[in-house]
Amino acid sequence: MSKTAAAAASVVDYERTFEAAAMDKTQSPLRFLFTLYQGNRMNLVISLIFFMIKHSPIFILPIVTANMINIATNPSAHTTRELWINFIVLGVSIIQNIPTQHFHVSFMSRAVRHVEAGLRSALVRKLQQLSINYHRELQAGMLQSKVLRDAESIEGLSKQLMMSFLPSIINIVIACILTARNSLTVSMFFLMTIPASVLVIYLFRRNIRRTNKEFRKEIEQMSSRVSEMVEMIPVTRAHGLEKVEIARMDNTLRSLQGKGYRLDITEAFFGSSNWVLFQLFQICCLLFTIYLAYHGKIPVGDVVMYQGFFGMILGSITSLLNVYPNIAKGFESIHSIREVLRSQEIEDNTGKLKLTEVSGEFSFRDVKLVYPGNEHHVLDGVTLDVRAGECIAFVGESGAGKSTVLNLVTGFLMPTAGQVLVDGVDLADVDLSRYRKHLSVVPQTTILFSGSIRDNITYGLKNITEEQVRRVVEMANLSEMIERLPQGLDTMVGEHGGKLSGGQRQRIAIARALIRDPRVIILDEATSALDNQSEHHVQKAMQELIKGRTTFIVAHRLSTIRDADRIAVMKQGRIVEVGTFDELMASKGEFYHLKQLQL
């Protein structure tokens, strides 16, 4: 196996570890975070070692200061050499901070950045596996917020734990050990701060968690609405609704502002409460050690040392309490991401039949479909046989079930009763990802990405020759248009193909379908939004596309399906008529009445 392939396999295994950890509902957010660092824990350990070395001046300074004060207050018992030794020790401990800080951050960043990238990759992987229904129900802006904001919050949580939380714990432990080595009485006083800090966290924990959750939900809503607003800008401008859209967004932003304000106030009250509490503790510590020094139980210099250690403990506890809201925010992001990683609405192809060839013969056997939570049948007893290479069109009123049939053919939906067979095999038993390689879909709304025309035609394909591209361009009736463009096939189409007309975008979609040489074509109202001239060009391209291929067409414009081998008329989820164009017109049934309405 090559290094590249091995690295790719390692990444996939790492992502699967994320998904497996997310599926364990007994895992706490902290345990889940710990699982994410599997394979990177040694980097964290090394980073922690360098942190303790670089952080050593914090512990050394109070001891050296106390030594110098004690030497200065009792010169007869000490020499100037002792002063210089203390000074050199302090100086070296300070200078070493530069290289050790570099290594501390370097090893930590390797681990944190690797987890951040792996987490986003696991989310992208999961989003590609989730069902089409899941994506329809969850708005795109919310998913973007989870991939971008929540993954970033978890990265921030990792850094807070490594750079604030864990160092604070270490500071408290070391300060208590150093204090206990000198005076058990003073160390017992220090330990009283720990239950006080636990009490403060307990009192504010629920409120902080609740406000963080509300704020996160509001951020997701805002992200979703901003995404909608950007997509709606042409419609908004065309109808002069800029002020309406601004007012709608202002309402969302005011709601977000209110949730953010409540979160800030909660965190501010939390911070001020712990600051006041621990300042009072520090005053008590000063009085206590001064009292001991006054009665000669400790040297005067030790007052400074104990005050330094106690200040370190209070600073660490204060840091823990101040960082707690951010940790709570990170844990809320873990909950948010696990909502996606835990979803069971996935397309599982494990162990299913991998079709190497598809002739294109389909059979619908008493197919029924009901959406979850809805008693109404979208399809109710659909039975139909489609021969290989046949072109069949579906017509009917909106909501009759036409597009649902196409979704069954692509495997986006599965029937709640009955069977859909391809070449005699139940689609429920077929590896859909492999099966779809034999399909091409031309939707009503063409989806292009912001690359070149060539990139959009050859999307996802490798080793495509220039001759193949030129041939499908000609078949899709695109040659004249491309010749007029200054950069030809390498012309950039803009976001969603915004620089092209609807007809041009549709013909590019047809070229994309042609270059795959599929056995099955699905055309979902591919010409309904086009003018007559554009429709003429697209129809010519479609004639090339469907030659010798099993073709499913959904059309509202009935004149466009005159040449279909058969037409199936649908009504209320059932097929009520099947025949050629001329046969259905002659029967003067449902199709005839639909055609009369368009005259």
Mean pLDDT: 78
User: Which strand order does the major sheet show?
Assistant: 6-7-8-3-9-10
| Low-pLDDT regions | 3-11
Named at the architecture level, the CATH assignment of the largest domain is Up-down Bundle
Tally of separate domains: 2
Which structural class should the secondary elements be placed in? Answer: alpha/beta
How many H/I helical runs?
Answer: 21
Pfam family, one: ABC_membrane
GO molecular function, one term: ATP hydrolysis activity
Coiled coil: 205-232
Domain ABC transmembrane type-1: 59-329
How would you describe this structure in keywords?
64% helix; four-stranded antiparallel β-sheet; 21 helices; 599 residues; Rossmann fold; cell membrane; 10% strand; transmembrane helix; ABC_transporter-like_CS; six-stranded mixed β-sheet; ATP-binding
Describe this structure in words.
With 599 residues, the chain is of the alpha/beta class. It has 2 domains: 7-341, ABC transporter transmembrane region fold (Up-down Bundle); 391-400 and 438-597, Rossmann fold (3-Layer(aba) Sandwich), CATH 3.40.50.300. Helices cover 64% and strands 10% of the residues. The chain contains 21 helices and 10 strands. The strands form 2 sheets. The protein has a 6-stranded mixed β-sheet, with helices on both faces. Strands 2-1-4-5 form a 4-stranded antiparallel β-sheet, covered by helices on one side. The longest helix has 53 residues, at 242-294. The radius of gyration is 35 Å and the shape is elongated. The relative contact order is 0.08.
